[in-house]
Amino acid sequence: MIPWEIQAREFVNCNCGYACPCQFNDLPTHGRCEAAGAIAIDKGYFGDVSLDGTKIAFVFWWPGAVHEGKGKCLPIIDEGASEDQRKALLTVMSGGETDPFATMFNVFASTMETVYDPVFTKIDFDVDIEERKGRINVEGCFETVGEPIRNPVTGDPHRVRIDLPHGFEYSIAEIGSASSNVRGPIPLTLTNSYGQFAHLHLNNHGPIRD
Q1: Does residue 207 surpass a pLDDT of 80?
Q2: Which of 36, 72, 86, 107 has the CA that lies 20 to 30 A from 119?
Q3: What CA–CA distances, in Å, run from 12 to 50, 76, 91, 97, 180?
Q4: Is 12 exposed, middle or buried (0-12, 13-18, 19+ CB in 10 A)?
Q5: DSSP 67
Q6: HSE (side-chain half, CA atoms, 13 Å) at 201
Q7: Run of H or E residues at 106
């Protein structure tokens, strides 16, 4: 395989409740899975191609649980990526050059029935993982905003994390509340649902446990 590695920040919004059942091998809150999100790669490479400073985004839809398949995906790459970076990122996003089921990219790719042509557009990514706050604007595609979950009595920020020592995406994710408005081939409207904020460190073989 071509060696690759990324260190990145991720913010994802899905349609489930704050305790996303997928993280616990349970069925989706509303029977189906819908999600939009983005990843800002602070440092990375694919072979001899630097991925520093690149950004990707995605929209997913499954009619049931992810593992049941028949999914749809729209891959998106920031317009600032070079041609070599675009090819590298699309390879990683499609699960290529990766051990089977080692990363979420590879796992999700195995469940896709429809993958739309990639979109190359401007991705604005302003996210604070620890504060559970963020805003993503993918020009022409979607906007996502996130904030801490609020205590229903006091209104104070509530902090909760998911720890996945053997997961295929992250080690620890901060959980917040997020909303998205998605246009295009997979239109979605998500309101005050699961928001996932995480640091990622991945390579061909899966998460690197720092």
Answers
A1: yes
A2: 107
A3: 24, 14, 20, 24, 10
A4: buried
A5: G
A6: 5
A7: helix 104-109
Only one residue has tokens 């041609």, namely 83
pLDDT for residue 210: 72
pTM beyond 0.85 = yes
Query: How is residue 156 written in tokens?
Result: 């104070």
CA distance 6 to 50: 10
Q: Which burial class, exposed, middle or buried, applies to 132 when counting CB atoms under 10 A from its CB (0-12, 13-18, 19+)?
A: buried
Over range 26-33, report the average pLDDT.
Answer: 96
Amino acid at 32: R
For 173-193, the pLDDT digits (tens) are 999 999 999 999 999 999 999
Pairing of strands 157-158, 206-207: unpaired
Sheet strands (E) in the chain: 4-14, 33-46, 49-50, 55-62, 71-78, 112-115, 119-121, 123-128, 133-138, 142-147, 149-150, 157-158, 160-163, 172-182, 188-203, 206-207
CA distance linking residue 72 with residue 23, whole number of Å: 20
Of 7, 86, 76, 95, which Cα lies nearest the Cα of 38?
76
pLDDT in tens, 86-108: 999 999 999 999 999 999 999 99
